Amino acid sequence: MNTTNQQRIEEHRILSEPFYLAQGNEVELALAAAREQLPLLLKGPTGCGKTRFMRYIAWRLGRPLITVSCHDDLSTSDLIGRYLVKGMEAMWLDGPLTLAVRHGAICYLDEIVEARKDTTVVIHPLADDRRELPVEKLGMIYAAPPEFMLAVSYNPGYQSVLKDLKPSTRQRFVSLSFTYPQPALESRIVMTEGQIEETLAARLVRLAGMTRSLKESGLAEGASTRLLIQAAQLLRQGLDIRSACRAGIIDSLTDDPELLEAMEEMVQSIF
Amino acid sequence: MDLDAQKQAFYELVSPSRPNDWEVEEVMELLAGIPADYRRALLAHVPTIWPISHSLCFSFLGEGVKGASRCPPELLSEWVRQILSRYEESGLRAARDFMGDIDTNFLQPLHGNAGVAVDAIRGAMVPYLRGVSGLALDLAADGQGRLWTDTRTIFVPGRQRLFAERVDNLLFLRFTVILQWGYIAGGSFRRQPDGRDFAALAARYGTGAGEGAIDAYLSCFPDPARAGQLLLLFELPRVFDLIRRELPGLVRAVQPLCQRLLAEDQGRCGRRGDQVHDLLRSILLPPDPPPPVGDHRLQGDGESGALSRFPDFYDRLADGRAGADHVLTLLVGEPDFIAARKRIEQTRAEDREQFISRLAGVLEQTRAQGPAGEKGPGGAGRADSIVLTAQGGDRHGEQEEAPGLSLLAEIELPPDLAAVRQRIEADLGEVPASYIQAAAGMAGQGRNLASGPETDGQIVPPAASFVYDEWDYRRAGYRKDWCVLVEKELPAVMTDFVPLTLHKYRGLKTRVRRQFEMLRTAHRFVKRRRYGDDIDFDAMVDALGDRQAGFAPSDRLFIRLVRDHRDIAALFLVDMSNSTEGWVGRMIKEALVLLCEVMEVSGDRYGIYGFSGMRRSRCELFHVKHLHEVYGEEVRQRIGAIGPREYTRMGPPIRHLTRMLQGTDARLRLLITLSDGKPEDYDGYVDVYAIEDTRKALVEARGAGIHSFCITVDQTAQDYLAHMYGRGNYIFVNKIENLPRRMTEFYRLLTS
Fold it and tell me: Using one digit for the tens of pLDDT, what is the confidence trace for B642-653?
């Protein structure tokens, strides 16, 4: 069984350096938190680089990264593990959290607010100075090795009252706030990831900046870096700039005809 | 039909009011001259317009008679709609002007051949402008057809029809708006002439040595208005460069239009070699033959900086009046530097006040949390300061600066405060130390004052009323027992308002009802139940595994489809201040009617209260529907009775409803405020004070486990909204017609 687990954990190892440009001192902070064995809370708008950041940190620390995308059907068994029946034998299968604890990996719960609040309570003993994971069914308490790290992410921009983090969960973490990168930095990211030339990348970033100023005018969220990269990829495939921006950015942001028109005009003005 | 019968019919239409006989007679005589069908069509709109404005109604009939030959009866409804929205926006005179020329203002635009009406494109243009500029700029039609800006709002001619094609007009309009933004962003309205600049003018024109801002400087010229326009021309190269860099696509598209305008102009005036003309050509159009090198005679200001060359520039161009000035006016407009300066000063003062009071609040909080925030390295307290550094970007090296600034660096600034700080920095270069000192002083003072209860001026409440504290931001403390709130009944009135509204929104109602039904029947599968519709395979496998491992297996092996019990209690608080008079109030009521209809479907508990009042001794809360009351005829009548009353003191009613909601056992408790602008009352309950008290009341509600949201009906989103309601806790509806739809939509999104 250990060999299976070993194989499973190896699948999560990040072998080549993910492309990441630091916005500020977040890398140092995360590494410091790792040394002090503190859990991380990443917050920021969608597509601003939270998940990429975790991959980068995992690579820097040389630890496997186990990512769990949270949803509202996620149960504690899904996180901790369960017994399965094989032949006439009951077999325990570690869940991602247990797997990470036992192998000193990084467990990253993406969009944690999507999970039900009672589910996320299981991470509490791991997220304070006890750093242990009680597994009721096995009757065991796993103490997390120093290499183990817990990280969660969420997007504070949602308007629904049902999507917020409990204070008791929130107040266990070192928080890193992510925003969209500075224009120069974001251009470099779009240029590198989308493999397009620099001036074009800068203009895409300028467009994104404009859409982000529209929050007051009814746009739920401005264009993310991820959308820009997506548009850049369409461009790379030879699409013309307006269709790429329309399909890759604008139409993904809203259905409101007036906002669509305004953004369409922005594209025409910039390019 | 004879005149008397007609008059009688009119009186019935406008009953119960009784207009002057002679007025009615005059209109009826006019009406007698048009075909009976058309007359009936016109009169059919009287009940709509009469309650809004009597004078407007008479004018409408008069102009309607004149337009009888041109405007087909089936277009009358649309015409009336436009008249009313014009009236709501700019008053009686504007509405009359609008009616006066039915061809230009209504029929031609309707057939799409009358240029671009600003009102029609505002919806897309304002987001465009805001997106491009990153500023909360606004766009408005100027009554006199001028193009200018006060640095907050850009005023443009109400209709742009320079070109035959709509798309060209739109493009040119967009360009001129962007040009105005260029002047704002390029700092043209913020220039500070120095003593030498004034001295140069004194030497040249013999004016006294002056001082002051750019408007004072311009007033020293023989023709200040002309000087203002020429200053914009002087700066045009720099501003145009900025726009070309930022928006190359726009510049590329607009250049042919500029060329056409300049060519027409030249054709019309036949003045070759006009200096303004040549200058515009050289700036705006791509250089045809390369420009002569070293020709400094006619250049604008290439880079931001000295005004020293401007008097020369002025003298050369001031007298060449007619010529290309037409094009110049079309492009840069007729600037009003005085209005701009006043607006800048006002914004600066507002920012200063907001910054100081908010920072004082933050300092106070930080101080109060004090030792609790320090949980050793990496504790929760540490996490806060990390937020600051990550958010604020590079903060290294600020420790060596003035103590005030390092103070800023150490404290986590909430987003709204950070935004104000950014604005101040953009305006003044840095946050003046005096601001921070003032805030620090205020925070300290507030602490002392807040510790002792405020007893002066206590009010003895009348019976059956409630007394509430009020937050005074200036001392960061409560004024004890400051406001008296009285619960009142709205008199039920017999009205056909509700049936009419339901008829009007029958389509929307059906659609929204269906959506709300979906809410109620939002069924989902629940796993691991003791009984249910199907076997939960995961649970089954777990149980088998457990049994094999020697554990007692769970008996929760079924999956069941459940209808979610929503368990929501929502209170709606409706602004009944006199500013809601007219369409705003009407639409709010219509929105309430629609909301009630669909809330019944959702099954959520809900109540509706109106509020108004005057002074702290008389805040009134009007009962429309209690939480547990059945939605019936009485409630409908009370909705019909909602009407504009006095002022908007928001703190007390919010505190009162918070208390009410605390008494309910619902899992999710919502307080939704519906308002049309800033809180305001008679006795100093204005601006920052009112906003801070409202904010405090909402914070208290949040502390009591109540989710508070606000729907604001306003022309534009105001800066204070985010601060007052908290980010993400409000929506603003700028098109009042959309309110019923947006409101139900908002409620649905909020609770699903």
Answer: 888 888 888 888
Q: Between chains, do B247 and A259 touch, taking CB under 8 Å as contact?
A: no
Q: Is residue B209 part of a domain?
A: yes
| Residues in a beta bridge with B525 | B561
Strand partners, B561: B525
ipTM of the complex: 0.72
Report how far apart, in Å, the C-alpha atoms of B671 and of each of B313, B570, B574, B662 are. Answer: 61, 6, 11, 11
The reply to whether B396 and B437 lie within a common domain is yes
> Does residue B627 share a domain with residue B595?
yes
The verdict on a CB contact (< 8 Å) between A213 and B707 is: no
Q: Which residue of A has its CA nearest to B752?
A: A160
Same domain as B511, residue B400: no
pLDDT tens digits, one per residue of A131-143: 999 998 888 999 9
Nearest C-alpha neighbor of A258 from the set B739, B119, B182 = B119
- Side-chain half-sphere exposure of B151, counting CA atoms within 13 A: 23
The per-residue pLDDT for range B668-696, each reduced to its tens digit, is 888 888 888 778 887 778 878 888 888 88
pLDDT tens profile B353-410: 888 888 887 777 776 655 443 333 333 333 333 333 333 344 444 444 444 445 555 5
Tell me the CA distances in angstroms from B217 to A177, B189, B197, B306, one per residue in order.
47, 12, 8, 13
Does the distance separating the beta carbons of B389 and A90 come in below 8 Å? no
- Which range (A35-49, A58-72, B444-458, B535-549) has the least confidence? B444-458
Domain range for residue B436?
348-450
With CB atoms and an 8 Å threshold, state whether A176 touches B378.
no
Would residue B118 count as lying in a domain?
A: no
Residues B546 and B574 in one domain: no
State the best of B116, B386, B741 to mutate against chain A, taking most chain A CBs within 10 Å.
B386
Chain B residues whose beta carbon lies within 8 Å of the beta carbon of residue A180: none
Last residue of a domain, one of B339, B370, B398: B339
**pLDDT > 90: percent of chain B:** 2
State how beta strands B116-117 and B159-160 pair: antiparallel
Same domain, B598 and B713: yes
Q: A210, B386: Cβ pair inside 8 Å?
A: no
Q: Tell me if B115 is assigned to some domain.
A: no
Q: Return the CATH number of A2-177, one of 3.40.50.1820, 3.10.180.10, 3.40.50.150, 3.40.50.300.
A: 3.40.50.300
How far CA B282 is from CA of B178, B179, B240, B734, in Å, comes to 19, 17, 12, 41
* Count of domains forming chain B: 5
Nearest CA in chain A to B550: A90
A29 and B123: CB-CB below 8 Å?
Answer: no
Closest CA–CA distance from residue B322 to any residue of chain A (Å): 32
Q: Which residue of A has its CA nearest to B667?
A: A162
Which chain B residue is nearest to residue A44, measuring alpha carbons?
B391
Per-residue pLDDT at A37 exceeds 90 = yes
Which of B125, B249, B389 is facing A271, going by the closest CB pair? B249
Asked if B369 and B312 sit in the same domain, the reply is no
* CB-CB contact of B409 with B395 (8 Å): yes
Write down which residue in B110, B141, B163 finishes a domain. Answer: B110
Which of A77, A176, A178 is closest, CB to CB, to B542?
A77
